[in-house]
Design brief:
Mean pLDDT: 90
Oligomer: single chain
Order of helices and strands: HHHHHEEHEEHEEHEEEHEHH
CATH superfamily of the largest domain: Bira Bifunctional Protein, Domain 2
Distance between the termini: 91 Å
Strand order of the largest sheet: 1-5-6-10-9-8-7
Structural class: alpha+beta
Bound molecules: adenosine-5'-[phenylalaninyl-phosphate]
Low-confidence stretches: none
Shape: elongated
CATH topology of the largest domain: BirA Bifunctional Protein, domain 2
CATH class of the largest domain: Alpha Beta
Length: 351
């Protein structure tokens, strides 16, 4: 039996040598498969050995079977490895033969998203104030009542604090109704001089063609020694003229906000019905007046300074707040504020 086994081992070694040479020599997938078939195919050399197994004595069959199976596994693994190596080599060759042109356009057209008109307007407004020397700050939309109202000198019974006007989250906590909360936050934590702008989302129980329950504001304030209303007018006029043109006329009308004294609103000459000679025809946007209201402003109330730990005898300052949707609507002639929030691609694609 030992002799017979020795002969079989020699035969298997011969097959091993042949398959290694043939797999190695195969340079295409087809050649590789042919080489594999010569060993493991129906008429393959190893298959022939397997076929003879039936005629062997049981003891011999067991030993030969184990060797033949080991060789079969070896051939199968070698075949898979060589196949993968050939595929890799072929891919490499293709890549080098046909280098990528990364500048070619894709085959499927790509739809580009773009910046929402409100964000475009916000960024433009912020960059004007940055150029004027203001620093940008950010604050939360969920706010304490005291930062949103009481430290801004709103009287406790002010209608804005009413359940009907604000979205309350819990007792003493609400969605901020304006970005003026940033005055309290920044003035309580920083010392003058300071010139700060802050943009963000605010919430009110409002809903019609020019009012939305969620909208965007920009707040600005400047505090230092000897700041006067003339500084306020100078900064805000420069801002409006950067936005709408250097020859733009502005006017300030007295108005009331609890946290400023005196308070005012700034109007700009209507950009829609302005005639070349500077007079105005009067239109729907300006309701025939020739003026459009743009923002609220005023000199920061001494009580607000005190609430933030700033000495009102030493420091004065001005503040202003404007609605970003309002500016967007005026710029692009958008008649209904809700268009800005419906996310209709036909509308948004125009900007
Ligand atoms: C204020 O919110 C003050 N905090 C502004 C201010 C800041 C005054 C600093 C003085 C000093 P007012 O409620 O007027 O003011 O709102 C300011 C602007 O927000 C308005 O002029 C308008 O453009 C916009 N606005 C108000 N309510 C809505 C709304 N529901 N939808 C869209 N825009 C609105």
């Amino acid at each position: 039996m030992a002799d017979a086994l020795h002969d079989i081992d020699q035969g298997l070694d011969g097959i091993r040598t042949t398959y290694r040479q043939q797999l190695e020599a195969a340079s295409t997938e087809q050649q590789l498969r042919d080489a594999n078939a010569k060993i493991l195919g129906k008429k393959g050399e190893l298959t022939a050995v397997l076929k003879q197994m039936g005629s062997l004595a049981p003891e011999m069959r067991k030993q030969v079977g184990a060797r033949v199976n080991a060789l079969k596994t070896e051939v199968e693994q070698a075949f898979e490895q060589r196949l993968a190596a050939l595929a890799r080599a072929q891919r490499e060759a293709e890549l080098h033969a046909r280098p990528f042109d990364l500048s070619l356009p894709g085959r499927v057209p790509v739809h580009h998203g773009h910046v929402h008109p409100i964000i475009q307007t916000r960024d433009e407004l912020l960059s004007i104030f940055k150029d004027l020397g203001f620093v940008i700050a950010q604050g939360p939309e969920v706010e304490l009542e005291e930062n949103n109202f009481s430290k801004l000198a709103f009287p406790p019974d002010h209608p804005a604090t009413d359940m009907q006007d604000s979205f309350w989250v819990s007792d003493g906590v609400l969605l901020r109704t304006h970005t003026s909360n940033m005055q309290i936050r920044e003035m309580s934590t920083h010392k003058p001089p300071m010139a700060i702008v802050s943009a963000g989302v605010v919430y009110r129980r409002d809903d019609d063609v020019t009012h939305s329950p969620m909208f965007h504001q920009i707040e600005g304030f400047l505090v230092d020694e000897n700041v006067t209303f003339a500084h306020l007018k100078g900064v805000l006029t420069a801002f409006a003229q950067r936005l709408y043109g250097a020859d733009l006329k502005v006017r300030f009308r007295p108005s009331y906000f609890p946290f400023v004294e005196p308070g005012a609103e700034m109007d700009v000459a209507c950009v829609f019905c302005r005639r070349p000679d500077g007079t105005h025809a009067g239109c729907r946007t300006c309701k025939g007046t020739g003026w459009m209201e743009v923002l609220g402003c005023g000199m920061i109330h001494p009580a607000v300074f005190e609430n933030c730990g700033i000495d009102p005898e030493r420091y004065t300052g001005f503040a202003f707040g404007l609605g970003i949707e309002r500016v967007s609507m005026l710029r692009y002639g958008i008649p209904d504020i809700r268009l800005l929030f419906e996310n209709d691609p036909r509308f948004l694609a125009q900007f």
